[in-house]
Amino acid sequence: MTRTRGPSGEWRHWPVLLASIAGIMLAAVNGYSLGVIMGPLEREFGWSRTEISMGPMIIAMMGLVGAPVAGIAIDRFGPRRIAAIGVVAFCGALALLSRAGPDIWSWWLHWALLGVASMLLVTTVWAAALNSLFSVHRGKALAFALCGTGLSAAVTPLATSALVTEYGWRGAYIGLAVIGGVIVFPLVLLFFRAARDTVVHDAAVEITGFDVREGLAAPSFRKLAAAVLLFAVSSIALTVNAVPVLDSQGFDTATAAWLAGLIGIGSIVGRLGGGFLLDRFDAKKVAAAAAVSPVVTALLLTLFPGSVGPVAVAALFLGLSAGTEVDACGYLAARHLGMRKFGTLFGMINGVVLFGSGAAPVAANYIYDVTGTYHLLLIAVVPVSLVAAMLFASLGRYPDWSADVAPASSGASVLPAGSSPSVAG
């Protein structure tokens, strides 16, 4: 049975959005809590910031292989099963971080365990379900769901700071894991579904797009992967290290955590606003504009160090960029690559994002350990962000997947895998 696509038809899937928001929020907790916990780790074990930041780098390296494998699993088993297992595994691994130390290898081993669990909660899981259920309002749906990262950026540093003050860094990791599991697992179990799990289908559910070989050969795939890698390097280096960067500029930890929380608020605004823009304008232009925003952040932090007003604006700009960019990446992947092998193809792109997200904090903190300042990092953000913007802007037109769908009367839903779509004008 095919149901007419429209606003009321698509938005009846709001419970999927709710579960996706919670899941994405949980998946970001380890990154946004690390900046607060970095200081206690330095004081207790004498580890350098570079050594501590190798934890996320381990996840990043695993992501190059793990995220594509997770994408293949999503295409085969559906995102619901992967997400449910992932929540349990992630919360368990997050709690186990409390057992790390005093040997740095213990820290890295626990992050490797967390990395395995993280592969089950990559963005591909949530985007695959939402892209299968939404078409007309796909940009807004992704925007609402990916607000989970912004909410995590706004809440996690403050919650972690409070938990560290009350229970120490070990208790903070256990507390974050318990809170996350109690809230997220029931939502995923009860509400998270993809099109393949539903009985009634929208027109948006028709599975069209490139197969894996065609997708990898498409210029849009390579440009998109390169653009999101550079964006991840420029923005995540600042986002994950926001508290340490602000500490180095003379802010106390509480003020730095509050200012870092503004990144989350900006991210939420950027996601919601970006979602509406993606549904109305050319997504590559929206993505290119967002990629330039970290330049503003870097300039404000360089020109006005230690000044609350300009730094607050810098944090908001960084959040706006991150919020819009992640939406645009999932949106552009669905439009340019289609849904036939979305899990596998977007999983590969997500692996690149994870690598960049892990490598950037290590590089940033290496710069700090060598120079005693993050000034060179702020300078490097400018050209990297501009190249990312140019790559987004150079993406071609969306393929016209309507040519890939057989008439309903034929009884077939898609053309053979080797068929090529026409290009929309």
Automatic annotation (TrEMBL):
Superkingdom of the source species: Bacteria
Gene3D superfamilies named in the record: MFS general substrate transporter like domains
Pfam family, one: MFS_1
PROSITE patterns, sorted: MFS
Membrane-spanning segments: 12-32, 52-74, 81-101, 107-129, 141-160, 172-192, 224-243, 255-274, 286-305, 345-368, 374-393
Domain Major facilitator superfamily (MFS) profile span(s) in chain numbering: 16-397
Keyword terms: Membrane, Transmembrane, Transmembrane helix
Protein name as catalogued: MFS transporter
